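Bit of a strange request maybe. I'm writing a small parser for structure token strings and I need a real example to test against, not something I typed by hand. Could someone generate the tokens for this chain?
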Amino acid sequence: MSSRIRSELLELNMGPQHPSTHGVLRLAVILDGEVVVECHPDLGYLHRGVEKLAEMRTYIQFTPITDRLDYLASMLGNAAYIGAVEKLGGIEVPERAEFIRVIMMELQRIASHLIFFGTMGLDLGATTPFLYAMREREDILDLFEMTCGARLTYNYFRPGGVSRDLPEGFCGKAKTYIKKQREKLVEYDDLLTGNQIFIARTRNIGIISAEDAVNYSLSGPSLRASGVAYDVRKVDPYSVYDRLDWQVVTRNEGDTRARFLCRVDEIRQSLNIVEQALDMLPEGELSCKTPLKLKLPEGEVYHHIESARGDVGVYLVSDGTDKPYRLKWRAPSFINLGALNQMVVGRKIADIVAVLGSIDVVLGEVDR
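Reply from user aminoacidic:
Good idea to test on real output. This should exercise your parser:
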């Protein structure tokens, strides 16, 4: 009788109804015991045809739909699309509006990273970090609500500026929040970042090299955690980011923990950016005058920004009417998810949850 142990491969479905997949994502996992042999994402459960919808709406009417892609960073979706419209239309944005946009974009980045921090802990069995992160996120949503009346999908950016000015008391409340968040980050680190169980579940797990990360076209913290200092705000500056003092956060380990630490450190950098923008906020107009029925000249344009999840790009084609002829959305969540298989092959099934959480995908942006 042979002493060799015979194994049998098992196909396991994670999702699409599963809390750790962060939405309606199905992972087709092939296992040898508890070891991952293959892991392939199965997409399309949330597909809404957003790019096609753009062809059926005017440039202004499509703006609220951009909130619904990465719905945890809606302001940044607005910014990417409106930036493309302004670039093709040659629309100048007043300086005050640019500073307000930066304040909103960085507050949105922090809010998104707070969700990541909380859900990353939740995925690995820690409930309290989620409650702490949601507590501070409420302060940001209060600032958004007092500015534009909404707490999740904002429709705040407009071609040429923003829809309304910052309300009275906004700057003081924002600075109070910044001070509070800096203090709470120390508490976060004590609670989760330095937790030995959390470290054991994330260190040297889901490693991807800088070369592979570039070849997979990763962007955002998922790329910078592998040592590649690519940030659209630095390499292709837009708005007034080049007038502010801040650093691109990178790590060299390329593992799940590095991706986690990148986002936590980015919260600190975003707090610095918001604080500077508040201090430098000039007086002036909120938007330039644009026609109610906005028509862009014939042509095409590509505009990209640094979202909370990476490089968001909008390729816009105009035929001279008041509606886009074609729109293509470069979604970093979709592209980053493509590297999941390489990150988890050879690991245990429990590591899939940690690695997927560290990529920080939003399924509204994946399926589009």
